[in-house]
Write a structure and sequence with these properties.
The protein has 268 residues and is α/β, with parallel strands linked by helices. It folds into two domains: 203 residues, 2-enoyl-CoA Hydratase, Chain A, domain 1 (Alpha-Beta Complex); 47 residues, Lyase 2-enoyl-coa Hydratase, Chain  A, domain 2 (Orthogonal Bundle). The protein has ten helices and ten strands. The chain has a six-stranded mixed β-sheet, sandwiched between helices. Helix 3 crosses helix 4 and helix 8 packs antiparallel against helix 9. The longest helix is centred in the N-terminal third of the chain and has 16 residues. The radius of gyration is 19 Å and the shape is globular.
């Protein structure tokens, strides 16, 4: 697929997806959502990619749904359609991205460069790790236009910051800055704006140098455990451990330690 609404680059085993509608604050269009989904699935299936970064071009990460879109361009909210016609409005558009995120078992890092509001904040919430520019702003702004979180925010946010804080953010719809995002545990780190991509890339490169089978299975364990009993999680961990112990990487790690050198993990 040729990309127009996003940029896609792979370098040193790190894929970078850049939302590329800066004139509309990287709000959603049908093309952007289709290309974003494709880039995520492409990254998941490419053995040459071990970590993925998502960011935005210009002054926004993403403003979410394009509230100015009308007619045929309004493929997300479908404001001029009736309830029956809108029954799959999210499923076949914006929800394709979180479905692709679920398919991605590699580290997924959001480098939040600017405003991440509404469904744009939901999209940031889907990342495993969020690193924010000191110019980033966040907001669950749905309530300000009479809507509810439509892209998984009501599921994701309580798991990141707790139910009480999530409801406060959802009910108020207020914008908050990167410092508050760090304080409530929504982001991992806040960095100067001009160093954001360097910091995100350095983190991704560290992960890309690690043992990919172990890293990917560890991610699966964490997310599956959120919906498992403790006993089920232990059984899943046993199965994953059996797999990783059979890899050459599990031998390379101890060998490199003994030889006092950096391990070279081949992913096999």
């Amino acid at each position: 697929m040729d990309y127009e609404a996003i940029l896609y680059d792979v370098s040193e085993r790190v894929a970078t997806i850049t939302l590329n509608r800066p004139e509309r604050m990287n709000s959603f269009s049908g093309e952007l959502l289709t290309e974003w989904e494709d880039a995520l699935r492409r990254s998941a299936e490419d053995d040459g990619v071990r970590a993925v970064i998502v960011t935005g071009a210009g002054r926004a990460f993403s403003a979410g749904a394009d509230l100015q879109a009308t007619g045929a361009d309004d493929r997300v909210l479908m404001a001029d359609k009736n309830a029956g016609e809108r029954r799959n409005s999210l499923r076949y558009t914006v929800h394709r991205v979180p479905q692709a995120v679920q398919y991605l078992d590699k580290p997924y890092i959001a480098a939040v460069n600017g405003a991440a509001v509404g469904a744009g904040m939901d999209m940031a919430s889907m990342a495993d790790i969020r690193i924010a520019s000191d110019q980033a702003r966040f907001g669950m702004s749905y309530v300000n236009v009479g809507l509810v979180p439509g892209d998984g925010g009501a599921w994701l946010l309580p798991r990141l910051v707790g139910v009480q804080q999530a409801l406060e953010l959802i009910w108020s719809g207020e914008l908050f800055n990167a410092a508050k995002a760090l304080e409530i545990g929504y982001v991992t780190k806040v960095v100067p704006h001009e160093t954001l991509m360097d910091e995100a890339r350095a983190y991704a490169l560290r992960l890309a140098d690690g043992p990919p089978v172990a890293i990917q299975l560890a991610k699966r364990l964490v997310y599956r455990a959120m919906n498992q009993t403790f006993q089920e999680a232990l059984e899943t961990a046993q199965a994953a451990m059996t797999i990783v112990q059979s890899t050459e990487d599990s031998k390379e790690g101890p060998r490199a330690f003994r030889e006092k050198r950096k391990a070279i993990f081949e992913g096999r």
